[in-house]
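Q: Here's a chain of 73 amino acids. Please give me its 3D structure as tokens.
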Amino acid sequence: MPLKFDVKYERSKKKIAKKISLSLIVETEELYKTDPSHIKLNLKNIICKRDKQKQSIHVLGNDGYRIFIKKLN
């Protein structure tokens, strides 16, 4: 599955890498690319009136941080 990262996501990823390991974030992204429904990702739909396509996944090894995803058709 090809992924396109938003500019805002790349910026925030650099900031958050100071608190948690950047390798955990990259590992999470790679797992999502290979198996988006993997149990470790804890994929959840986000209820939003404006955008029905938003989801979130846990960063591996750190339950306090999540990555927000928007599916594009």
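Q: Can you summarize the key feature?
A: The first strand starts at residue 44 and ends at 45.
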